[in-house]
Amino acid sequence: MPGRRERTTGPRRRRWVRGVVWSVAGVLVTAAGLGGVVVWQNTYALREERVVLRHDGHRLEGVLARPETGHGPYGLVVFVHGDGPTDATHDTFYRPLWESFARAGYASLSFSKPGVAGSGGDWLEQSMADRARETLAAVAWARGRTDIDGRRIGLWGASQAGWVLPKVAAADRGIRFVIAVAPAVNWLRQGRYDLLTQLRRDGAGPRETARALRRSDTTLALLRRGASYDEYRAALGRDADMTRRRWRFVTRNHTADAVADLRAMRGTPVLLVLAGHDVHVDAAETESVYRGVLPSSTLQVAHYPGATHSLVDHDLESREPLLTATAILLPRRLYTAGFLADQARYVRRFDSGRGTR
Length: 357
Prior knowledge:
With 357 residues, the protein is α/β, with parallel strands linked by helices. The chain has 13 helices and 8 strands. It has 3 domains: 13-43; 47-186 and 256-352, Rossmann fold, CATH 3.40.50.1820; 192-246, no CATH class. It has helices at residues 10-41, 95-103, 128-143, 165-171, 187-201, 206-224, 229-236, 244-253, 259-264, 283-293, 314-317, 320-329, 339-348; strands at 46-55, 58-67, 74-80, 106-111, 148-158, 178-181, 270-277, 299-308. The radius of gyration is 25 Å and the shape is globular.
């Protein structure tokens, strides 16, 4: 009868039980197989060592990732994070890069930002100059290790690191190379570009766009006159979306511009990496500035037309279930095609004195 559950007896029940058992077994085997794939895909040809840097009165927790074999001395890539509370591995996102550099004979060094993953301090209390001094301390620490070749230390950084990398390379002329991935040049212009592209992407109409621009202009005027957080809250009302700590961070850094530091670091080889679907950084402006300031003999520009700001394929990043599955099952494929190999190829130029200076 409809809605009535029948009892299962005799041979029929045994067949039903066997079916359930084999179905459960199949699920377990599949899960075990997928588990094996996940473990394998998230195992990297690296030797990771937890390290500590003491700087500015704080203890910074980090990772030194060396090639799987050998004793060095290895060349070294020092990582400089973008915005946000980033740990040493960038939630494991850095590990495919570390592996690529390791296969080129390079170690990688990365520290969790102050206040993140055991590091002391507060990254929102830092200026870009503070971040540069922290990176210089990491380079000095690395030069003190016998397994690191102090003549082959380069920098890798993304996005907000665009204001840190040139400062470090200008201050330490021993930096062998800089890899700048989707770097910003001017804080205020970058913010306006980010706002406009987000509005277009969200399909904002003229009225909503005008309101967002007025809000942005009001915030900028407050920053320029050194307004307090309370003044910002009073002026913006419900549109005030920054916390007190974030307001202080922006107040410290909103005048950041990379041009003077880029001029000061002239002569250091630079790989500029640009994405075709970057909604946060104006890739055309960045390329124009870098080409206008740096000698063509030391600047190499790599374009990835299908990539987003994070160097993930645009089609992949826009499909969240697929993005999540890729991150778990095939993490190396998160990055756009060719990016990892190109990174390794670039640092190999600086082995045994090769490459320009």
